[in-house]
């Protein structure tokens, strides 16, 4: 059962004051392009003043530096040296109100960022981007609905021990490959249950929580809700897991591929559209359920509505052009190895209930019609959920509006030979090639109804910075391979 985004939200300034009457401080945060929470504590009076004044100043450098606070290699659109890293306008979203149970129930709110002169959303603000996509969907009479699943390795390490070990020879939380194990959860039992219980209190409800295959790996499925709320919950689940982990001397890692010889960590996204009346847009009518939809492109899509098939086609057509939005890191592409061993697809593929495909169709007869949806299996756990969901929904809606046809048959009708001969379109195999493809002049990502030029240029510039740092790095692998014998 999803939690309403307005369940505990104040509806007026007076209600807000009443909710905070016993508090002296409030925690606020925004999200940068890498999906990192950037925030601070504010005195309650300062916070209330910002709410009544429609915002407060927040240093724009959070869009001008990378995940480790290193200033980007070149000037970008939002924050740069020429404007002195001036303040953006941070607007508090009252609908995100919740309390942090492991921090003495301190009140917490998310913000989105506006240009201080025009009061328009800035192009690179992840919450603002997804909010705009959701509003475009609403203008067509649809609500964007999403769910998110995370796989993540965990280590018996602290921030101090990670630094001391230089992130090498880390101790996993448990040993061995134990997917869906009821036995392994008896180890670290307090931590395992606290993740479920504390996130519920934090209004980040979970649907499933279990061990996944790999040493110290958990998988957690977040309860579906509206897309913006889902992205908020996905970011805040990471925050909760890392915070609760620190209490137990545990470091959860959402890195996509921390071990070269083991499966990586996925960040699968489930998407659907509903009408304003609550009808599942991808579902068939009751009269079609017995035999499936007449005119479906393939048997795999016969229990998907025509709108659902168009949406699927839109995502498939644009998937190669928006890859940095789904896989934003150097490491993430090492997870996408294809094949059934790791279930990490690396091609433009889809199929009914297929975990080997990039997009898995989930529909009757395996689920009730109202649960019909698509699972996008390309993203890793290191994705920024706002950008990933924005790109997916924007492409899908574009597919409906343009009534696009599926670009290829389902994966069940493809062979390894099809991949080798080019019949199956492969996805970019590195962040460098993915960024080049996204930024090319005719990229679908540049369509104003998808991401638009400004976001492509700014985010693409941040990825070029990441690539530059990687190309300049000297790794342990290189030293071990070449130092003595070269």
TrEMBL record:
Q: Which UniProt keywords apply?
A: Ligase
Q: Taxonomically, which superkingdom? A: Eukaryota
Q: Which Pfam families match?
A: Gln-synt_C
What PROSITE patterns does the record tag this protein with? GS_CATALYTIC
Do you know which InterPro entries this protein is assigned to?
Gln_synt_N_sf, Gln_synth/guanido_kin_cat_dom, Gln_synth_cat_dom
> Taking every annotated instance into account, which residue ranges of this chain make up the domain GS catalytic?
126-486
Q: Does the keyword Ligase apply?
A: yes
Regarding protein family, the annotation reads: Belongs to the glutamine synthetase family.
Q: Which PANTHER family match?
A: GAMMA-GLUTAMYLPUTRESCINE SYNTHETASE (PTHR43785), TYPE-1 GLUTAMINE SYNTHETASE 2 (PTHR43785:SF12)
Name of this chain's protein: Glutamine synthetase
């Amino acid at each position: 059962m999803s939690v309403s985004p307005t369940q505990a939200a104040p509806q007026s300034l007076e209600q807000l004051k009443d909710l905070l009457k016993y508090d002296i401080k409030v925690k606020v945060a925004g999200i940068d392009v890498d999906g990192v929470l950037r925030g601070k504590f504010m005195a309650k009076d300062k916070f209330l003043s910002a709410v009544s004044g429609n915002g407060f100043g927040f240093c724009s450098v959070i869009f001008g530096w990378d995940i480790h606070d290193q200033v980007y290699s070149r000037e970008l659109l939002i924050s740069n040296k020429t404007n002195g890293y001036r303040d953006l306008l941070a607007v508090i979203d009252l609908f995100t109100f919740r309390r942090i149970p492991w921090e003495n129930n301190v009140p917490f709110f998310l913000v989105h960022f506006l240009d201080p002169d025009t009061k328009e959303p800035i192009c690179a603000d992840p919450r603002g981007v997804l909010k705009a996509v959701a509003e475009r969907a609403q203008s067509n009479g649809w609500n964007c609905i999403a769910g998110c699943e995370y796989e993540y390795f965990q280590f018996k390490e602290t921030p101090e021990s990670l630094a001391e070990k230089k992130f090498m020879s880390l101790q996993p939380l448990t040993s061995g490959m134990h997917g869906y194990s009821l036995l392994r959860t008896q180890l670290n039992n307090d931590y395992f249950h606290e993740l479920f219980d504390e996130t519920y209190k934090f209004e980040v409800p979970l649907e499933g929580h279990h061990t996944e295959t790999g040493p110290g790996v958990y998988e957690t499925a977040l309860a579906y809700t509206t897309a913006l709320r889902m992205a908020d919950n996905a970011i805040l689940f990471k925050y909760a897991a890392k915070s609760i982990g620190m209490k137990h001397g545990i470091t959860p890692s959402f890195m996509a591929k921390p071990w070269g010889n083991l499966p990586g960590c996925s960040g699968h996204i489930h998407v659907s559209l509903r009408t304003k009346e609550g009808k599942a847009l991808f579902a068939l009518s009751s009269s079609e359920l017995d035999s499936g939809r007449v005119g479906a492109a393939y048997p795999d899509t016969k229990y998907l509505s025509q709108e659902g098939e168009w949406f699927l086609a839109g995502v498939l057509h644009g998937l190669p052009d928006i890859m940095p939005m789904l896989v934003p890191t150097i490491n993430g592409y090492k997870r996408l190895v294809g094949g059934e061993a790791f279930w990490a697809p690396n091609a433009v593929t889809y199929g009914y209930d297929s975990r080997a495909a990039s997009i898995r169709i989930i529909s009757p007869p395996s689920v009730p019609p109202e649960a019909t949806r698509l699972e996008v299996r390309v993203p890793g756990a290191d994705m920024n959920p706002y950008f990933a969901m924005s790109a997916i929904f924007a492409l899908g809606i574009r597919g409906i509006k343009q009534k696009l046809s599926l670009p290829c048959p389902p994966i069940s009708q493809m062979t390894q030979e099809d991949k080798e001969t080019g019949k199956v379109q492969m996805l970019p195999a590195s962040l460098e090639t993915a960024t080049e493809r996204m930024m090319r002049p005719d990229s679908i990502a540049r369509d104003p109804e998808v991401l638009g030029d400004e976001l492509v240029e700014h985010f693409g510039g941040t990825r070029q910075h990441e690539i530059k740092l990687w190309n300049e790095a000297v790794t342990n692998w290189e030293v071990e391979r070449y130092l003595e014998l070269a």
